[in-house]
Amino acid sequence: MTIMITISTFPMITDLPAIQCGIRDDVALHNVNTPDSTHWRTRMVVIRITDCSDHKLWYSHLVGKYVPFVRHLLSDNCFMSREPGGYSNIVRLQDAELVEITGDEIDYIHYY
After folding, report:
1. Measured between alpha carbons, how far is 86 from 44 in angstroms, rounded to an integer?
2. CB-based burial of residue 75 (10 Å sphere; 0-12 exposed, 13-18 middle, 19+ buried)?
3. Hey, where are the domains in the chain?
4. Three-state secondary structure call for residue 104
5. d(Cα 62, Cα 50) in Å, to the nearest integer?
6. Taking the complete model, does pTM exceed 0.85, yes or no?
7. pLDDT tens digits, the chain, 112 residues: what are they?
8. Going by C-beta distance under 8 Å and a sequence separation of 6 or more, which residues neighbour residue 104?
9. Which of 10, 43, 60, 103 has the most other CB atoms within 10 Å of its CB?
10. CB 20 within 8 A of CB 70
11. Cβ atoms of residues 84 and 38 within 8 Å
């Protein structure tokens, strides 16, 4: 049985790939100096809360923390994430940034 994971790229300032929440992606990196060698790197995209423009939002106490990245809602200028309770909710673009976590950092990431 073959399982395929689709990774799509949205046109955005950070130009980071959109990876479904919590899914790791192994990427082959080729060394420019030695084209025959290939290094593998694991990466995951998450949302880092940088600010909270309204203290009533669900992530107001999570400034500086990482939350899961589900997708980018282009029409609403926000990211879709998951609350600690498991519900889907939005994070405003002006309050957050997408961050790519790689390698060992993934094992030590704690949401919320």
Report:
1. 19
2. exposed
3. 8-108
4. helix
5. 9
6. no
7. 444 444 444 444 444 444 444 445 555 554 555 555 555 567 889 999 999 999 999 999 999 999 999 999 988 899 999 998 889 999 999 999 999 888 777 666 667 6
8. none
9. 43
10. yes
11. no
